[in-house]
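Private note to self, pasted from the team thread so I don't lose it. Backbone tokens:
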């Protein structure tokens, strides 16, 4: 078997341009192999895209106009990356901070959230997901907040939002 391999290889490599042709074939195969990935990358980065916020309710505009707000408390135990990123952008745009974000290890987040809920502050807005509405309905009295629904979220505030209808 080794003789057949040696004979084939030596006869193949005798030509002057064999290495060049072999190299060109390998490059062609490589480009063909990653062609779809390159097209996807081109499509992802070649066009200008603008961020469009999913937070379109007038509630968000009214909250953004309040100078007393400094912090967003994400109370929900549901940590979907999408909403967290949207609220992080919203907080950043308004010069606020957040208690929760996309962490590799969110040590003590639940503890600090619970502490925030025990010491309500008018400089904070408290966010819940609407799929927790049933839980909140039975526990709204536990926290002295005004609750509003906006864009699939429940917003809790110590103060009243003028142009919004409270949940309770």
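Design output:
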């Amino acid at each position: 078997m080794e003789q057949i391999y040696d004979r084939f290889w030596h006869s193949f490599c005798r030509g002057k341009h064999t290495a060049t042709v072999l190299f060109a074939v390998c490059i062609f195969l490589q480009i063909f192999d990653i062609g779809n990935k390159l097209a996807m990358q081109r499509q992802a980065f070649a066009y200008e895209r603008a961020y469009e916020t999913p937070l379109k309710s007038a509630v968000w505009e009214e909250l953004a106009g309040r100078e007393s707000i400094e912090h967003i408390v994400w109370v929900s135990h549901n940590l979907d990356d999408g909403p967290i990123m949207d609220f992080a952008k919203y907080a950043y745009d308004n010069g606020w901070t957040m208690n929760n974000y996309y962490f590799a290890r969110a040590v003590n987040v639940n503890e600090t959230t619970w502490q925030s809920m025990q010491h309500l502050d008018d400089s904070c807005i408290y966010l819940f997901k609407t799929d927790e509405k049933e839980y909140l309905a039975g526990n709204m009295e536990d926290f002295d907040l005004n609750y509003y629904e906006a864009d699939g979220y429940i917003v809790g505030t110590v103060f009243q939002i003028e142009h919004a209808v409270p949940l309770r």
